[in-house]
Design goal:
The complex is a heterodimer of chains A (about 60) and B (about 500). Chain A has three helices and no strands. Chain A is mostly helical. The longest helix of chain A is centred in the middle third of the chain and has 20 residues. In chain B, helix 3 runs antiparallel to helix 5, helix 5 packs across helix 8 and helix 12 runs parallel beside helix 13. In chain B, the strands form six sheets. A six-stranded antiparallel sheet of chain B has the order 4-5-6-1-8-13. Chain B is built from 14 helices and 18 strands. Chain B has about 500 residues and is of the alpha+beta class. Helices cover about 40% and strands about 15% of the residues of chain B. The chains are: A mainly alpha (about 60), B alpha+beta (about 500).
Chain lengths: ~60, ~500
Amino acid sequence: MAEREQIRKSTSSRSDEETVEEAPAGSEKGEQLKAELDDLLDEIDDVLETNAEDFVKSYVQKGGQ
Amino acid sequence: MAIRKILGLETEYGIIHRGTDESNPIAASSMLINAYIASLERTDRAKGPTAAWDFEDETPGNDARGPIGGPAMPPEIETHLVNAVLTNGARYYVDHAHPEYSSPECADPLSVVRYDRAGEEILLASMAAAANLLPPGQELVVYKNNSDRKGNSYGCHENYLMDRQVPFGRVVTHVIPHFVTRQIYTGAGKVGSELHGEEPDAVGFQISQRADFFEEEVGLETTLKRPIVNTRDEPHADAQKYRRLHVIVGDANLSEVATFLKVGTTAIVLCMIEDDWLNREFVFSASVPALRTVSRDLTLRQPLPLADGTSISALELQWELYDRARKYSEEFGLEAIGHDVGVAVLDRWEQVLSGLETEPSSVARQVDWVAKQRLFEGYRRRHDLPWSDARLAAMDLQYHDLRPARSLAARVDLERLVDPAEVATAVTEPPEDTRAYFRGRCLQRWGSQIVAANWDSLVFDVGDDPLRRVPMMEPTRGTRAHTGSLLDSSSSAAELLDKLGS
């Protein structure tokens, strides 16, 4: 509990403009996550629907609950 | 003391029929579900769910506020469409032009995750079964999302059994702040805006799929003028003892942790309401705009104006509820949702709030909107795209595609809470700790003699007139502990009914 309070205090002055999607600089875990994201971005065009515009246009649903 | 929180999720899936110009969502949904049921009957006739849904006790027009709730259109019950009960105790049917899977009643939030995931497997198996019936080049594809990005929304509803004695006004007062702010970890993320009267690109990326579609604070409707608190008063149980809180404001989640937290934190908040443990009231100046503000504030820190002139951010409000919940657990325990699972909810809640506060990308494996935003921002940077690019809209849909070959959610390494083997079991086996056990086991053993089933009864036809209805008005009974030996020792449905004395 006390530990969490401390975390909250130490981060309260953090700038809101800091980009939220960047992994913490220099941390090993952050580097690894970034490498994984890069790998995924490399393969993603093979996974995406071939004609994005047509796909998005044709995805029409009736409203539900 | 807070009563046992029997829980369930109802998920309406998006559906498209590919490879044809003549698609009709109702026909496609019917074909999907019928193909699944036919495939079960082919594999194992005895295990095929042959029971139809029984509408005898449906009263979706009843209002929890009583008859003075104001003018409203009671929801229509669609009795003519395919509607089946499965051996795991779930309901699988066509609702408003969507396939809907309603999980069986579950006794804790981890069980909800297991049966929600089983639902995804059932939808996948349904797509495969439908592919066998369709001409080459055609395919039915389902999406576990809540909007078509064109202003049409469909829901993922939650259900919580509550003590009828708790004044409904107290429930409303304390669930609104939770529903408005829990989005920060339950949101499934969305590219753009679907708010009526606003341009789609007025927003780049927002936290929630559903927030754009809510117009009222409290009300009975579910398909138009959607309210943050839905007042449908249809307990599917003894109405003297219970109410069922029907929650329509949430997103469907691909992250198991998000589903676990969505249901777990809400169940704990409801326990605290029952035990009158929430001493502070957070009344927003305007809750509907607050819901949208939270969905569009990726910093999670925007002050939300309160009626008393002060303000609080979504993150701060969630910390307040978390702190109160931790103290509640120490004082009362969390037996109402299974104590150990309840403590796991609290630990996760703290972990995810800490992550969101210090470094949101640290919870990219737990929170859908963070996973999505991280992936989409990476793609945007790499290709230098505006949020309005069609490829980002396509990714927004494809995150929710259930097919492993196309799903983006399957590629972001979301943390799993349940073992795939447990999920596979949950496709056919009911939970053992609610009345779903009795329903599911009866269907497994005597499916051909059950002519109708619903949440609170089974109707048997054992050859002699008249049909015999077994009421199940108590959701915590009909468990394996209650009925296991009775079921095991009955060699026929007739023998079971004789022993039950019905």
